[in-house]
Amino acid sequence: MLPLFYGMNVLLVAGLYFYYNRLNILLCPIQKDNFWWALGFGCFASTVITLLNEAAVNWSKWKSAVTETEQLNTAYQKSKLYGLKGQINPHFLFNCFNSLSSLIQEDEQQAERFLAEMTRVHRYMLRTDDDHLISLDQEINFAKSYLHLLKTRFGQAIHITVNVDSGVLQKQIPPLSLQVILENIIYTNSIIKASPLSLFICNEKDKLIVRNSIHQKVLNKVANLEEGLDNLIAKYRLLGGNEIQVLENTHERAISLPLFDKTEVAQ
Questions:
Q1: Span between the terminal Cα atoms of the chain, in Å
Q2: Helix H segments across the chain?
Q3: What is the pTM (predicted TM-score) of this model?
Q4: Are the C-beta atoms of 171 and 259 separated by less than 8 Å?
Q5: Topology at the third CATH level for domain 89-258
Q6: Do 219 and 188 contact (CB within 8 A), yes or no?
Q7: Quick check: 228 and 217 in contact, CB under 8 A?
Q8: pLDDT digits over 222-254, tens only?
Q9: Exposed/middle/buried for 176, CB within 10 Å: 0-12, 13-18, 19+?
């Protein structure tokens, strides 16, 4: 903008010098020898004002960036804390060990696989704890291990389908996103064999869709169960791009998670 301001100063000072004697505004004569001083002062004043204005704008942007960074870090810390809660959830561990104990007596081979999948789940939770993004391929593999534990536990009371195109597996997603959603589904819906819970994971272009049937049960601590999903929504909002979409009716809920390219995440 400075060249434009300098040009405006030239026109203004030259115009004042040209019209001053014709307008007879003041009685004092014009000092033609001071033309360059007047022009220099105008350009200097424009430079100072412009720099101050730019400094104020950049300061505002910097404060906004710092605030967003702090909010993002807070969201990640909450997400890590929520993930840690999931790792040490006594109900989850108790149910897993209870299922494992039953399998050992009934089918040792299936018990070995259950233990292997359980190990993969907890290893993934520990390894991705400090990662902001991870490939969808890794997240889907984790989800399959997590869903294997659920399927072993609930049997015919839950129907699970995972159908994700291989072309989007290299996209990026915040780690443990599916764990947050799946845990929310499991703990907010009744799961009985007479009315099986349907769970479907697929993709639509650059979005991962998690769809489930609704069989709501009475809960005492709904707020705690929704905290993880709220934190995930906040994390996506701070990462930039499209936000999570939640569509729900009386029979079904669908959660749409945008997928990231490595270059799309806000710095």
A1: 27
A2: 2-23, 35-87, 90-106, 108-127, 136-154, 177-188, 222-239
A3: 0.64
A4: yes
A5: Heat Shock Protein 90 (3.30.565)
A6: yes
A7: no
A8: 545 577 788 888 878 877 767 899 999 989 999
A9: buried
